[in-house]
Design brief:
Oligomer: single chain
Order of helices and strands: HHHEHHEEHHE
Strand order of the largest sheet: 3-2-1-4
Structural class: alpha/beta
Amino acid sequence: MPVDIPRLFRHLLAPSARRLFPADSLQRIAAAIAAGELRHRGEICFAVEPSLHPARVLAGMQPRDRALEAFAQLRVWDTHANNGVLVHLLLADHRIELIADRGLDGLVSAEQWRGVCQAMEERMRAGEAEAAVIAGVATISDLLAAHFPRTPGSHDDNELPDLPHLL
C-alpha cells in the first residue's frame, strides 16, 4: 500500500481539538446531550480526536476503524439496552463517524445515519463546529426517541458521561 503523504502531513499538522471546542463549548455540547437524553433511554457519546499517531496513518488506519476502537475504549457498548451511539470526529481527516450499538440494528437505516453525518459535515465546513455537533446530537436524539422513548415513571440511569471526550 503506497504511503498517503498528504494525509500523513494533515495528521502531523492537525489543529487542536481545544481550538475548535474550548471548555465552554464542551459544556454546551454536554448540556445538549443531557437535554436530548431526557427524551429517550439511549446514550450519546461525543469524542473528538485531532489526529492519529503517524504510525497508524502509515499503517493505513481509516477513520471508521478508529471510531470503532473509540467505541470500545469509551465503553459506549456498555449500556443496558445496547443503544449507545458514538459521534466520533477525526479532525485531520475531516470525518465524522457514527457508531451505533447493536440495539439499534434494523431500527435506524444507514441512510438516516448518513443524513446525520452530512448535515454535521455541512455545518463543520461552514466553520460552525459546536453548532454542527449540537445539531447532530439533536437529530440522533430524535432517532433514539422514536425507538427508545422515555416513558412516564420509567427509571433511566445516565449510563455514559455527557461531557465530550478529547482523545
